[in-house]
Amino acid sequence: MRCVGRQPWTLYNQIRTVDSASNVPASNVLVSLTGFAIVYAMLFVATLYFGSRIIRKGPNLELPIPGVETIRPAIDTSPGEFVPDERPLEARQ
Amino acid sequence: METLTYFLPQVWFGILALFLFLYVMLDGFDLGVGILSLTSDDEERRGLLMTSLSNIWDANETWLVLMGGGLFGAFPLAYSTILSALYIPIIAMVFGFIFRAVAFEFREQAKRKFIWNVAFGAGSFLAALGQGFALGSVLEGIKVDESGHFIGSTWDWLSWQSILIALTLIQGYVLIGSTYLIWKTEGELQETHYKTARIAAFTTLIGAIFITVSTPIFYESARTRLFQQPLVYIFGVIPVLGVLLISRLLSSLDRKQERAPFVWTILLFVLTFIGLALVVFPYIIPPNITIYEASADPSSLVIMIIFIGFLIPVMLFYNLYQYVVFRGKVTGGHYGE
Fold first, then answer.
1. Which residues of A touch B91 (CB under 8 A)?
2. Which residue from A23, A28, A46 is facing B150, i.e. has the nearest CB?
3. A15, A18, A23: which to substitute to probe chain B, counting the most B Cβ within 10 Å?
4. Interior CA angle at B192 toward B169 and B248, to 5°?
5. How far lies B293's CA from each of B25, B78, B148, in Å?
6. Please, where are the H alpha helices in chain B?
7. Which residues have CB under 8 Å from B231's CB, separation 6+?
């Protein structure tokens, strides 16, 4: 039996939504649902606020990259000695 | 098959009791630390308290999730009845969890930390309070019809006995939280929690004495259960062991031991838990519905055991592993030196 979730069935031809609902007053459910909506709305605003602040601040570029030295030895970036090109003129370019 | 219908629900009762115990022990100290943070008036201290939890608190709460799922699968009737009866305490707990969880993330970013300090402390308190009322009202009994469905009203969970149990549970959480901080911190911060642990040990003891005395007086079902022939000896031994453990705990606090207080507190929790489980068993919705009436079909219980059998060792492993990785004292600022 496949559950198709169609009113008034919770489980098609097996149990109706009216029989499967919890015995909790509707007012309780309304209060908690409203509570969730309010709390999550506030948290959404807080998330945007802190998130935008972190993004605007950008990453800390001063920090050394961890573990780089151990993986790759430092490359020598000092200018090399000038070696004059001694090929014939046609082969240069 | 006849034995299976008795055996399987018992196994599941055991598994759920294990989950609940691990949850109460682990999240107990972390809610306790949260409640303790309310008494601190120093940002740096509060920061250290939160740092001591930041790597572990969410893993601790997975046991509650697992217990909820397990209860739903193994004892669907108990799940629907208990959660309907405890709608308000459970919702309060969930809101407490939300505030506390976001406080961990947002407090670090915020320039004005006041709101998030309150969210962390009050959230922890609210969650602990909700759990206390839930425990209290389940022990007290839930009104059901003959098929086990909830027929009580919204505020049934509120009574003198459940208030007493909720307050005592909070004391217990503060106790285990203090002893955890004794283990994890040093210097002045540790000194403070030797003091709070001592106070909490006394208040927990007072609460426990009141509960132990009042339960058999006010609740007939608990009374008949407590004075049943073979069990009466166990229930006689438990308070004696409890007093013994508390005296060991107090002397370890006197001697300024760092780890022993936490261990003694855990043993106290184990003892209390065994006592409560024996009072409740074989009922899952006291005082009327047993685990045999509330359990799911044996075939689902078997399948679930197979899956949970794989899951439990994995979870235990990663939980232990994180404590190994993040072992050692939490230090920082002048409290660490």
1. 32, 35
2. A23
3. A23
4. 60
5. 29, 9, 9
6. 2-37, 43-53, 57-74, 76-85, 87-109, 114-140, 160-184, 187-218, 220-226, 229-254, 260-280, 291-294, 298-325, 333-336
7. B225, B278
Report the distance separating Cα B41 and Cα A84, nearest Å: 73
Find, in chain A, the residue whose alpha carbon is nearest to that of B103.
A43
Select from A15, A22, A27, A36 the residue whose CB has the most chain B CBs within 10 Å, as the one to mutate to test that interface: A22
Distance between CA atoms of residues B35 and A64, nearest Å: 38
User: Whole-model pTM above 0.95?
Assistant: no
Identify all chain B residues contacting A43, using CB atoms and an 8 Å cutoff.
Answer: 98, 102
Q: Residue A22: which of B80, B99, B106 has the nearest Cβ?
A: B80
Kindly list the averaged pLDDT for each block of 10 residues, start to end, along chain B of length 337. Answer: 81 94 94 93 88 88 93 93 93 95 89 91 96 92 86 88 94 96 91 93 93 81 76 86 93 92 95 89 86 90 92 92 88 51
- Is the bond preceding residue B76 a cis peptide, omega within 30 degrees? no
- The Cα–Cα gap between B245 and B265 comes to 8
B109, B149, B154: residue with CB nearest A28: B154
Q: Is B87 in Cβ contact with A53 (below 8 Å)?
A: no
CA distances from B43 to A58, B48, B174, B225 (A): 26, 9, 20, 49
